[in-house]
Amino acid sequence: MRILSSLSPLVLFSISASALRIVRFISDNGEIFHGDAILPANTTDASFSKTAKVIKGDIIGGNFTVTNEIRNINKLLSPLAPEATRSVRCVGFNYATHAEEANITIPDFPILFYKPWTALAPPNGKVPVTEGYQTQGNFTSTMDYEAELVVVIGKKAFNITEDEALDAVLGYAAGYDVSHRGWQIDRGGQPQPQFSMGKDADGWGPWGPALLTKDVIPDPQTLKIWQELVSYLKT
Ligand SMILES: *[C@@H]1O[C@H](CO)[C@@H](O)[C@H](O)[C@H]1NC(C)=O
Ligand SMILES: *[C@@H]1O[C@H](CO)[C@@H](O)[C@H](O)[C@H]1NC(C)=O
Ligand SMILES: *[C@@H]1O[C@H](CO)[C@@H](O)[C@H](O)[C@H]1NC(C)=O
Ligand SMILES: *[C@@H]1O[C@H](CO)[C@@H](O)[C@H](O)[C@H]1NC(C)=O
Ligand SMILES: *[C@@H]1O[C@H](CO)[C@@H](O)[C@H](O)[C@H]1NC(C)=O
C-alpha cells in the first residue's frame, strides 16, 4: 500500500489488489512460490488453503503483484524464505501474564535478543531437538514453548517515532519461540544467561502459516494469542 501511493496512476493500474494472506509454498511441480492464499469457505486459517494466487515481485519491499495464476499448495513453508529474512529481533517478557507466571518483575527496559535466520522454519513441522539438547548438563529445566506474534517490518525504520512505527510494518504472523530453559538460564548451576544457546538452534523459530497484511489486521492490539499443546514426542 505504501509503495502504491507513491506511484503514478498509470503504474497503479497494472498492479492488482494488495495481498491479504501471503504464503510461501511448494507446488505440484516442486517449484516454490509466494502466493495470496485462497481460503476454503469455512475458515480464515490459511493452513487449510489448498490453492493460492501467485505473487510476483519483492514481498519484503512491498513492491509485488498478485497475479491471476492459481497454483496448488502441496506444502506450506515459512511465509518468507529464511535466507531472505535476515534479522529476527525478539522481545522478552512482552506479555505481562507470561512475566507474572514466571514470577519475574517486568523490567523497565525490554529484554531484546535475536534469533538467527537458520532458526526459522515452516509451520506445522517437527521441532528438532538434537541429542545435546536432550542430555547435556545438570539442568533443572528443559524445553519450553511460547506462542508469539511475529511483526514483519517492510521498510527501513531507524529512530522513528512511536506514531510512525506501524507504517513500517508489512504484516503479522503467528510464531513459536522454542527455548531450552536450561541452556538459556540455569546453565547447570552457573548463573550466566545465554539466550543464544537456549533459543537459537536450527528450526527453533517456526512461523506461519501466512503473513497477514494490514488489510486483514489494521490494529494488532485487538489480536488474541494462544497456543494448544497437542502432543509431546519423546525419542
Ligand atoms: C474446513 O474444511 C476443510 C476441508 O475443506 C477441513 O479440512 C477443515 O478441517 C475445515 N476447517 C474448519 C475450521 O472447520
Ligand atoms: C517494482 O518492481 C518492478 C518489477 O520488478 C520494477 O520495475 C520497479 O522498479 C520496482 N519499483 C520499486 C519502487 O522498487
Ligand atoms: C511462582 O510463584 C507461585 C507462588 O509462589 C508458585 O506457585 C509458582 O510455582 C511460581 N512459578 C515459577 C515458574 O516459579
Ligand atoms: C552434575 O552434578 C554432579 C554433582 O554436582 C557432578 O558430579 C557432575 O559432574 C555434573 N555433571 C555435569 C554434566 O555437569
Ligand atoms: C534519534 O533522533 C533523535 C532526534 O533527532 C536524536 O536526538 C537521537 O540521537 C537519535 N538516536 C539515534 C540512536 O541516532
Automatic annotation (TrEMBL):
InterPro entries on file: Fumarylacetoacetase-like_C (IPR011234), Fumarylacetoacetase_C_sf (IPR036663)
UniProt keyword Metal-binding, yes or no: yes
Protein's UniProt keywords contain Signal: yes
Domain Fumarylacetoacetase-like C-terminal span(s) in chain numbering: 88-226
Pfam families, sorted: FAA_hydrolase (PF01557)
Gene Ontology molecular-function annotations: catalytic activity; metal ion binding
UniProt keyword list: Metal-binding, Signal
Signal peptide segment: 1-19
Family stated for the protein in its record: Belongs to the FAH family.
Protein name per the record: Fumarylacetoacetase-like C-terminal domain-containing protein
